[in-house]
Write a structure and sequence with these properties.
heterodimer; A: 127 residues; alpha/beta; 20% strand; B: alpha+beta; six-stranded antiparallel sheet; 31 helices; 56% helix
Chain lengths: 127, 1097
Amino acid sequence: VLANNGDKRILVVEDDPDLREALAEILRDEGYSVEGASHGAEALALLRKGVAGSTCLILLDLTMPVMNGWQFRDVQRRDPDLSRIPVVVLSAGERLAEQLRPLGIQTFVRKPIELSRLLDAIRQYCI
Amino acid sequence: VRSALPPSGTRKPSSFRRRIAIGFATAVLLIAATGLVSYYALHETASGDRAFARQARDVIEVSRLRTKLEQKMVAARGYMITGNEKLLDEVRQRHDELHALIQDLRKGNLTKRERTLLADIEAAEQAHQRATEEALAQRSQGENAGSFAENVEPAREALERRLLAYISNEKQQLEETDADSAQKNSIASSLILVSGALSVGVTVILAILLTQRLSRLYELEREERRLAETTRRRYRDLVEGIPGGIVWEADAATLRMTFVSRRAREMLGYAQDGALAEPAFWTKLIHAEDRERVLAIAAKALQDGSEHQFEHRFLAADGRTVWFQTRIRLFHEEAKPPVLRGLSVDITRLKGADDALRLRARQQAAVVRLGQEALAEIDLVRVSERACEVVAETLEVELAAVFRLVPGRRELLLEAGMGWAEGLVGTAAVPATTATQPGYTLLAGEPVLVPDARREKRFDTMRLLEDHRVVSGASVVIPTTAGSLGVLTVHSRSLRSFSAEDTVFLQSVANVLSAVTARKLADTAVEESERRKAAILEGAFDAIITIDYEGRVLEFNPAAERLFGFPAEQAVGRELADLIIPERLREQHRRGMARYLVTKEAPVLNRRLEMPAIRADGAEFPVELTISRISGEGPPAFTGFVRDITERRHAETERADLLAREQRARASAEVAESRAAFLAEASATLASSLEYRATLTTVARLAVPRIADWCAVDILDGKGDLRRLATSHDDLGRAPAAERVVRYPADLDAPHGPAHVFATGEPEVLNEVSDEVLRAIARDEEHYRAARDLRLCSSMSVPLSVRGLNIGVLTFGSAESGRRYAAEDVAFAQDLAGRASAAIENARLYRDAQDAVRARDEFLSIASHELKTPLTTLQLQVQGLLRKIQAAAPDPTLDIVAPRLLTAERQVDRLTDLINNLLDISRITAGRLDLELEPVDLAAVVREFAGRARDEASRAGCALQIETAGACVGQWDRMRVEQVVTNLLSNAIKYGAGRPIEVSVSGDDAWARLMIRDHGIGIAPEHQARIFERFERAVSDRHYGGLGLGLWIVRQVVDALGGSIQVESESGKGSLFTVNLPRTLRKRRTSAAGESGNARR
């Protein structure tokens, strides 16, 4: 464990299991506690099971099966229990700033992910 | 309200006024009544209220009575118990007060019952007082006070009862008064309301009535004014338009002109304004001789007011005298001074013409009379005498004479005369020289007028005439066909002028004399003329042929002999038709002759005709012919002048041929020219588009309407079917039919039409699109009907081919233009088809190329995206591991792993860059290089990426020197700026040959400048231009790897950001790349230009 961030939970929503695992491992090394979900619906289920309370950040992929990132964000924003959790988008898409503005998301990290940037972004929310 | 309105303006205003007054009176009365009622109601209410107040006060007073009574009782009881003398006084005092109060109540206006009740009260109070006094007296006498209760209490109760009775009475009265007042109030309110409403209503009705009436009056008045204006205008127009007439108006009192119509200017030449300004114009205008008469008539007209008509002369501005007929009348117009209005019509011509006509009629009658007499009279001298009589009488002259030329002697004999001295007629003669008037007239050959013989200079006045004291005279020639027969003269002893009519009359009389003489001389004259004619015939250059009414030849002159090849002997007596008229025209000739004899109508007479004729040898040749009828009595004969016009014809034909040939040449030159122009235009139009469908449509449209009314392009599709991909037509009505036809796939086995042309590769021209052709092409009845509805009358199809391979068919159809295609049009159509084919092929190639580019871009985009996913995981894993190692405790195993992981990270980074570059290519070429502008610090970016590149640089042996002067922030796309820095840095490291690299960031307010200098291999000048091109490198790929995309992308990005990039380099000395970026993007450019520009055409 590289830092003591144990009481801060990060929810990684990413359909690629390898990437999800890699992210989870790195973030755990950074001392965060990490939950993974392979799509939006799964993430919502997790959050509603009680994870929501201790979650300080959601790392969200956009292109996913079942429920994609846009749909997830839409539901999350309108759920008063979940809407307070900040979201950082991970995507290889284009014109991200423009795309994310209507979703109310300011922070995104481009794939391929520059780890230092990702950690900087996370530190903004999980202090 | 409606019925109260007066019906439209037929009523007299006075009746209306009366009604308005009545209405107002009613309104005033109603308002007054309302006031009265209101006053009464208010008054009643007030008095009720007063009564109410009084009664209320009474009730209060009674209450006070009760209180006093109580106090009196208390005092009395007190005395009874205590024996205090003071209380006795109080009892008395209370009693007085009670008494006074009761007396107060009894004052004023009381009802009967009130009075009774108050009397009762007073009585009861007296009783009570008495009882009290008795009781008190007993006490004072030391007796038992038992009687107090016995006597005083009942008295008090009695008084109380009375008081209560009074109060209840008052209460009842109060209620009654209240109810009464309320009722009165409501009645008063209703009354006020009703009367108020009534008066308001009446006032409103009155106002409406008044307004309507006023507006109607206003409109009536306006209408009348308009009518009056129109009438006035019409009158003026009418007045101005009277031809030959002047309308004028003069003030009746002063006779001063107030109006003169414009025609006066034309007719009399006075300026209108001047005419009006001149006070005495009216009197000056009229001819002096007529002035008095006219003024008298005017005075009469002013007096009796009736119309007067008279004729008089006006003096025109140029001094002319013009006759006018004038009608005048006095006019009174409302609110205007009376005017004398006149219409003057120019009758000068009428007057003149009238006189002339009368004179002419008389003269003509005289001539006719003389003519008739002359017919019956054989003696020439007798006729001459009659002539003299007639002219003397008709022209009202004293002398008339006929001087006849004596043959062989230069003398004129006075053959007949009127008014001459005895013995002169028949004997006297004058010389036929210019010295005498008859001689002068004879030689001059025209009428001679002598206005005043005393001033005559042309000839001496004859003694003959002097003796007769003549002053004026006229003379005319008595003509004959050969010359002059003599002279007819008239003379007058008074001064007079002879008019043109007089001369004409004289001449007519002379002509009669001439005719008579001519008839007398007819026999000799006929002989003479025959002889003369023969001479003409002999010598004529033209052939002259005379025929009788049966068409037989009477004369045939030598020229005719030469022309036709017959001697005159052979010709005379034969029918002309048989002789010289071609057989086919003979019947026509005979019919013409026959018709003339019946109807006397001959359209061919006296006209130049051209017709064929035949010679004796049977040869036909063209002649020009003029036929005239020979005048004279008896059966008609005709003379024909015939001229050979073979030569002329020949020349004419030749000229016509030449002209026609020239016209044909010019026409075909024009056609060729217009076709060439059309083809040139077609080429230009076709070249203007590379879009496949648009090109096909262009091809179809080109032909309409210049060479076709309908045009279709059929193209072979990928499945081997011929499909109609474009049509065009001038007439929109043809669109539905064209659409229906398109539904049918082409039948390659059809015997005609586009499919047939495609199958055979041979052009087809259908001069006539017949029903059979349509049936043969049509697949079924519906198809046939659709094709028929195109209404094509002619069509032409030519194959479209590319490199000898048919790709389709171009078909032209004509309909309403009536154009018919012929074999000679094919070449032109093929020419157009050739151009169209080329354009279609170009469009097709372009479309294919574009498809390929699009497919490649799509593939690149997808591929890059797909590559990124595993790369992300890989990169993260490597970075995660490195991070873990760096944080872990020193361990020899990790020392081995760490550098390898670093290598892995570098390679992953490279892979990431490569993929990003690939993605950028597709983005840029597709014109989708989107910028996300945000504040970016170029200095910070340089520092960050130089830090990252330091390892790479040091491995390449290059020292990195960074020089930034503080933050350098601009509105840029962060990722793109990073890309520029990275690409330029790695480029410098790659070609830096292990020498130091200097990076600097500088700038001003508007621009930021990034400079990267290496001291490596450099770029030869000839390569410098193309290093920014795609897939280009200055060096061989055998030495240096890479895709050659870095600098191209840099340039695209810099372009997109509105900046510029330059390179300065020398082979072997290194390169300096300078990037200038504007801090804000001035011109909004979100996509890269350059190649993408072409790609998007």
